[in-house]
């Protein structure tokens, strides 16, 4: 270690000896923005403190789960209390029933749900159920949508796959890749003609309820309803992935925004297909993660009861997990939901829109081309002038300008997602004082972005 080497640098050096790229998830390596990632020592509210004692306003929020801020006292107390009663039972426990009841109460299409340990497990399991239910193999996804590192879903995926400009992943068999068809996001004609040609082979369409892993792309008006209608007309299913948008884009995720308006009929009453088309539509299966575990590893998939009852031991679809429904994770999820009332969502919406204005003002003043896109309270900033509607658009932005902006903000004490392809995450702990700290750092960052 040289005299002025930081603790984060020496930790990164150590990590790289024993962990590929020194990280346990690719985007954390700062590969596309360069530099050494700060190693985080602790976090509280909206703030992170790294191993060198630097403090940052956090706009990553662990990529979504920390919606009440870090080390929220209610969540930490609930986890501590649960830990005192045992860490894992591998047997049914109260918290998992309560957490699933909470999900079913909050999201209209959910009739039955299984808890898993990550968003990846949730989408992988939902796909398996869809294939079993339809007896078909083909799955349709959209370019730029990320659904975790499930073999079948890595083709033209967003998130880290986009950050590192990868077409997909090595190690996925040809057979698996053949069963995945990738279409341009939002392209109704492409969906219609694919179904006209191969509808009888398609098990499911899977889509992010609102794409947020190529940056945030607002779904075209009633696009998800159209997908439901098209899939159902061909005997296929629609899976909406709300791992990122769930309980964040709105209280009911993106379905709370483009699902039937409040007071409409509750969809999918167990057996049979849910209502199709029009405004009264529902996905057959949905996936969740992030917020529902409050920072501990949890995912969930659920939807129509008849589909979920295909799972073992009721039905022929095998799916399991040693730590699924873990008592600490369900305690963290329940405590997080306890803090997610209407006032919390109103505050998240206010903070998100204030931040959008501040960023737009700073970038406009510095003359940096940008466009800010939203999906409910979710937003991201693209470094280009024209709106982004597809993955091709998202890739066509000034990532070098983003890199300069990112590093200047980091220097100014603001921790952004280290990629131009990610949403920015706020929490209820981002109060006026915190937003003011971001406002202070923005002008210099915008000027840095301008200096290409
Ligand atoms: N689906 C979506 C929409 C996601 O954003 C993510 C993670 N960013 C996943 C699935 C995978 O979740 P996990 O990282 O928990 O496996």
UniProtKB/TrEMBL annotation:
SUPFAM superfamilies: PLP-dependent transferases (SSF53383)
Pfam families: Aminotran_3
Cofactor requirement: pyridoxal 5'-phosphate
Catalytic activity: (S)-4-amino-5-oxopentanoate = 5-aminolevulinate
Modified residues (N6-(pyridoxal phosphate)lysine): 290
EC number of this enzyme: 5.4.3.8
Major localization listed first in the record, in broad terms: cytoplasm
Keywords per UniProt: Cytoplasm, Isomerase, Porphyrin biosynthesis, Pyridoxal phosphate
Pathway: Porphyrin-containing compound metabolism; protoporphyrin-IX biosynthesis; 5-aminolevulinate from L-glutamyl-tRNA(Glu): step 2/2
Compartment list: Cytoplasm
Family in the record: Belongs to the class-III pyridoxal-phosphate-dependent aminotransferase family. HemL subfamily.
Subunit architecture: Homodimer.
Protein name, entry field: Glutamate-1-semialdehyde 2,1-aminomutase
Gene assigned in the entry: hemL
């Amino acid at each position: 270690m040289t005299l002025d080497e930081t603790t984060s640098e020496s930790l990164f050096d150590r990590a790289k000896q024993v962990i590929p790229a020194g990280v346990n998830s690719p985007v954390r390596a700062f590969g596309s923005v360069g530099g050494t990632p700060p190693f985080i020592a602790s976090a509280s509210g909206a703030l992170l403190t790294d191993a060198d004692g630097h403090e940052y306003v956090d706009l990553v929020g662990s990529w979504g789960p920390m919606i009440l801020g870090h080390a929220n006292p209610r969540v930490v107390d609930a986890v501590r209390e649960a830990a005192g009663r045992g860490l894992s039972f591998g047997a049914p426990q109260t918290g998992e029933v309560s957490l699933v009841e909470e999900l079913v109460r909050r999201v209209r299409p959910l009739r039955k749900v299984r808890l898993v340990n990550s968003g990846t497990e949730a989408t992988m399991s939902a796909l398996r159920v869809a294939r079993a239910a339809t007896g078909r193999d083909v799955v349709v996804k959209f370019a730029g949508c990320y659904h975790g590192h499930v073999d079948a879903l890595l083709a033209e995926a967003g998130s880290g796959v986009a950050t590192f400009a990868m077409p997909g992943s090595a190690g996925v068999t040809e057979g698996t890749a053949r069963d995945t068809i990738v279409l341009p996001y939002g392209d109704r004609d492409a969906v219609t003609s694919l179904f006209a040609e191969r509808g009888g082979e398609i098990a499911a369409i899977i889509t992010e309820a609102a794409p947020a892993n190529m940056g945030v792309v607002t779904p075209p008006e009633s696009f998800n309803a159209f997908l439901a209608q098209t899939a159902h007309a061909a005997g296929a299913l629609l899976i909406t992935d709300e791992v990122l948008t769930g309980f964040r884009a709105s209280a009911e995720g993106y379905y709370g925004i483009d699902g039937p308006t409040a007071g409409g009929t509750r969809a999918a009453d167990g057996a049979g297909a849910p209502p199709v088309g029009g405004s009264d539509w529902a996905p057959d299966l949905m996936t969740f993660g992030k917020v529902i575990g409050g920072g501990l590893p949890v995912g969930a998939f659920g939807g129509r009861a008849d589909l979920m009852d295909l799972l073992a031991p009721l039905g022929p679809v095998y799916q399991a997990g040693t730590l699924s429904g873990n008592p600490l994770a369900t305690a963290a999820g329940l405590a997080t939901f306890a803090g997610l009332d209407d006032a919390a969502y109103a505050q998240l919406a206010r903070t998100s829109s204030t931040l959008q204005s501040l960023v737009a003002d700073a970038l406009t003043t510095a003359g940096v081309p940008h466009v800010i896109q939203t999906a409910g309270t979710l937003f991201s900033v693209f470094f280009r002038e024209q709106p982004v509607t597809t993955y091709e658009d998202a890739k066509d932005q000034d990532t070098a300008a983003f890199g300069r902006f990112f590093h200047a903000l980091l220097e100014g004490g603001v921790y952004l997602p280290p990629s131009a392809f990610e949403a920015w995450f706020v929490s209820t702990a981002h109060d006026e004082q915190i937003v003011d700290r971001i406002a202070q750092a923005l002008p210099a960052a915008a000027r840095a972005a301008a200096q290409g």
